Amino acid sequence: DVKVTQSSRYLVKRTGEKVFLECVQDMDHENMFWYRQDPGLGLRLIYFSYDVKMKEKGDIPEGYSVSREKKERFSLILESASTNQTSMYLCASSFGRGDYGYTFGSGTRLTVV
Amino acid sequence: RKEVEQDPGPFNVPEGATVAFNCTYSNSASQSFFWYRQDCRKEPKLLMSVYSSGNEDGRFTAQLNRASQYISLLIRDSKLSDSATYLCVVKMEAGNMLTFGGGTRLMVKP
Fold it and tell me: Which of A25, A68, A110, B4 would bridge A49 by S-S if both were Cys, CB 3.0 to 4.6 A apart?
C-alpha cells in the first residue's frame, strides 16, 4: 500500500512562528499536494508539485510556501503563523495523470495561538 | 457555480436502509470520477472509482451519467459503520488535478 506520512498529528504554535509541515510518500509518486480543510469550506488546495523542485500555487497560497527538494518529500511552510491558519492540513500524492486518485496522509491538526 | 456540487446533508437513515447520493459536475470534458469516504477527523480515503458503465463493490454501486453530468453512489443495507462524509471527486480534462465536492454527510442510526 502507498503510504503518505505526515510528520505530526497535532501541532500547537504561537502567532508569528515559522512552521514546517512535512510530508513523505514511499511509492515514487510524481505529484504531491497540500490542502487545508475547514468546517463548511471543504478541501482547499494550497500548493502542488508535479516534479522535484517544481511548485505551483493552488487556490489559497497566501501566507504559505512549499519546498520539494526530493521526489518523496513535500514540505509546507507557514512563514509567520497566524490564528486564521488554524486548520487541518492534508498532504496527498498521486501517480501519473491522477487517474487512480490521490492517497492522503493522516493529516496534521494545527492550532495557532 | 461550484465545479463539483453535492448536497451536504446530513442524510439520516436507519440501519438496513438503501440510500443514494448524487453529485453534479460542471466540466463536460471531465475524464475520471471517484467517490471518497472521510470519517470524522480522519483523512479522505478512496472508496471506489466510477466507470462509464457503472460499477459495483459489494453494497456500493456507482453510476456515471455523462449526458447530464452527474455521478451517483448507492449504498444498500446500510450499516452503522457507513456513517461518514462521502466526497464526490472529478478529474478535469487536463492536468493531474482532482476537484473535490464539499461532501455529503451520512448518519446511519440503529
Answer: A68
